[in-house]
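re: ur question from earlier - yeah i can do the single chain one, its not a big deal. heres the input i used so u can compare w yours
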Amino acid sequence: MGHDLSTDPGYLAYQYGDAARLRIRQEAHRRYSERPDDFLEWVVDHLDPQPGERIGDVGCGPGIYHPLVAARGAQVVALDPSWGMVAEVARQGGWVVQGDAQQLPWAHEAFHRVMANHMLYHVPDRRAALQEMWRVLRPGGRVVLATNAGDHLRRLHELHAQVARSLGYRPLEGSVTERFSLDHLALVRSVFPNARVHVRPDAFRFPTVEAALAYYASMAVDRIADPPGDGSHRPRLLAAMAEVLQEVWARDGVIRVEKTAGCFVAEKTVSG
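and the output i got, formated as tokens:
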């Protein structure tokens, strides 16, 4: 594995070969978010799909947005680089292909709207992917790109760094948000000049150490330089993190981690 896990093919295959770890994170957002309104609905409101429209979902994962789009009378055509995610969507009866966001296998102006949610930080050439989304979008069509704020999960990453150093590991600096976050408006506007940012403040309120630890174990535990190939770092880090989280919970009665996210929204103008 390279140091940049966000684009490392081997690590992405481990993370997204099936939906197990992703489901843990999605379920945590559903159960432990401070905000009562649903993030998925919030994103689809910005997408605003209309009955009869064709929607492209780039980097669809297990297709969690698809029922919400279908409920508004639109049809989703999806793509993901992972065969595991493709199989997950196909089992649900979705229209999905395996492919690369940097070279979309779709015709010019194929879609009324395009969404790419929490995935551009995994794409090596983000601008190429944005240009492909522009290509397959109809003039006047809308693109929505959901992602995290630059300080998303900062507290969790700080605790991880503390624990990793105490065990002799070197924590990776930053997070996936350094590759694509709500701070990357200039990049989005280089392809979609009228793009604007919508921010949605939120935080986790984990009621137990076990709940916070399960979320940590699903991804952040691996953010160390040169992790052992046998995964032996994971039980050591999980045990040490459990002790730290127990201290936080004993002091505060809850484990609170800010997780502000949001989306870019833009339309394809005739001039590009």
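The first helix runs from residue 9 to 16. not sure if urs matches, ping me
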